[in-house]
Amino acid sequence: MPLQVGLQLYSVRESLKRDPWGTLEAIARMGYTHIEAANHNARTDPGVGFGVGARELRERLDALGLQLVGCHISPLHLDILPGVLDYQAELGNTQIGCDIEFFPYGDRDYVLRRSEAFNQVGDLAHDRGMRVYYHNHFQEFQHIRDDAGDDIVFDLIMANTNPDR
User: Would the pTM count as exceeding 0.85?
Assistant: First the structure.
């Protein structure tokens, strides 16, 4: 399979705020066909972050030859996820991800609680035929050293989440 390169819409977030349709048209003209959205306002906008209904966005993306391959959702909270996931499903998106997580230094219990929350997010997504991915940064590679051992946050997340979701 040939390599498929896409664009993370976070990199053009300021342009999207000013002119979402013009920005998407420019992305398509550059030759991109795959895009990943980043919604940092999911509490007030269940979509992709610029206040557009799923049906209209899907029609416009189709017309431009753009395919949404994922969307970061923030905050990734269980109380708002049903509406967010319904929007993403209507849009035809098959996966969502977390945008960034901050883990209190050395707090194993917090990492385990967030891992359980990720499992619940995965279950909600799975019920809609979707999957969840984890977008990591540097903080997942910090050590947690305590009476339970010396572990890396990322390893704890992987060991305590369901890989089928």
Answer: yes
